[in-house]
Amino acid sequence: MRRVKGLATLNRAARAIASDATSSTQHRLPHAAPFTTFSSSTSQSFAQKIADRFGKSSPSVAGAVAGFSVAASSLGQDVHAKEPPRSQNFLPKDVVLYQYEACPFCNKVKAFLDYHRIPYKVVEVNPINKKEIKWSDYKKVPILTVDGEQMVDSSDIIDKLFQRIHPDNSAPESDEEKEWRRWVDNHLVHVLSPNIYRTTSEALESFDYITTHGNFSFTERLVAKYAGATAMYFVSKKLKKKHNITDPRASLYEAAETWVDALKGRQYLGGSEPNLADLAVFGVLRPIRHLQSGRDMVEHTRIGEWYSRMESSVGDSSRIQE
To answer: Looking at the annotation, which residues are catalytic?
Structure first.
C-alpha cells in the first residue's frame, strides 16, 4: 500500500510540473525509465516544464535546461565577499537574487555580481510551486531585488546594474560586445544542452547536482533526478535536429574555438579587463566546467587559459550565506 501511495505521489508531482509546460520547445526511454507510470508524452512535458523553470529568462528553452549541469565549482560559492566592491558609485544595502541554482541565466547574473564584488543574498525558488516568487507578477528567474526594486531578465538586469556602477560612462556598448552577448544567448546555450544530456550517464550527472542543491521536496527530488534526466536525454536528441547539430562534442569544441578566435590574442574580449561579453560566456560555462562535457571542452580546445583568467578575475563569490 505504501508503495502504491508513493508512486501516486510521484505521479501527482510529475503532473504538477507537466501541467504548466510550455506549448513550444525552444530554450531537453528505453535505457533507464525508472517510473513505469510515466507515459512518453508525460515525460516530454515534464522535461519542458523543468526546462521552463530553470532559467527561461531568454526565449531559449534549450539554454535554460543547460543550467541543470551546475558542477562542483559552484559548491565553494556560498561565502561572504572578502573584498570591497570595485566601484563606490553603487553600494546597495540589500540585494536578493531569486534563482534556480542550476539556471545558466541566473549564473550570468551571479558572475556579474561576483566580478563587481556586490554582496547578495540568494533565495532558491522551488521550480514546481514557485511559492518564493508568488509576490511578483514576473514568474521566471532570475529576479533581482535591489533595495526593494525588482529587476528581471538577465541581460536587462546586467545592463541596469552596469549603468549604476558606471553612471558617468556615456560611451555606448561596442558592436563587438553586443554581438558576442547575443551569441551567448542565441547560440552557445543551444550547443550546451545536447552535450550535457548526450548520454544517459551525463544526463544523470547533470541532474544529480540539481536534486541535491535545488529547492525540492524528497518526492520532487526523485522525480527530477530520474524522470527528468530520462526525459531530457530524449528531448536533447530533438534539440540536436532542431539546431542542426550532428556531433554535440564537435559543436561544443567549435563554439569554444570560435570564442577564443574572437579574442584575437587579447586576454579578454574587453582587452585587459573582462567586459560584459566575457562575463556572459563565463557565467554560462561556469556551471558545466567540472562535468564531463566541460572537462572535455577544456582538454580538447584552447579555451582553458581564458577560462582560468576569468576565474581569477571574477574571484570568490559575493554571495552572503545566511
So the answer is: 100, 103, 105-106
For residue range 170-179, what is the model confidence (pLDDT) as tens digits? Answer: 677 899 999 9
Task: Provide the residue type at 76 as one letter.
Answer: G
What are the CA-CA distances from residue 204 to residues 16, 223, 270 (Å)? 22, 12, 36
Rounded to whole angstroms, the Cα distance separating 209 from 87 reads: 34
Q: Tell me if the pTM is above 0.85.
A: no
Summarised one tens digit per residue, pLDDT across range 205-235 is: 878 866 676 667 778 777 777 777 787 778 7
- Which residues lie closer than 8 Å to 312 by C-beta, 6 or more apart? none
Q: Identify whether the C-beta of residue 320 lies closer than 8 Å to the C-beta of residue 80.
A: yes
- 79 residue type, one letter: V
Give pLDDT, residue 221: 76
263 Cβ partners below 8 Å, 6+ apart? 269, 306
Distance CA 95, CA 150 (A): 10
Measured N-to-C along each axis, helices 303-314 and 276-285 cross at an angle, to the nearest 10 degrees, of 100
| Range of 24-28, 157-161, 286-290 with top mean pLDDT | 157-161
Q: The C-alpha cell of 89 is what?
A: 558609485
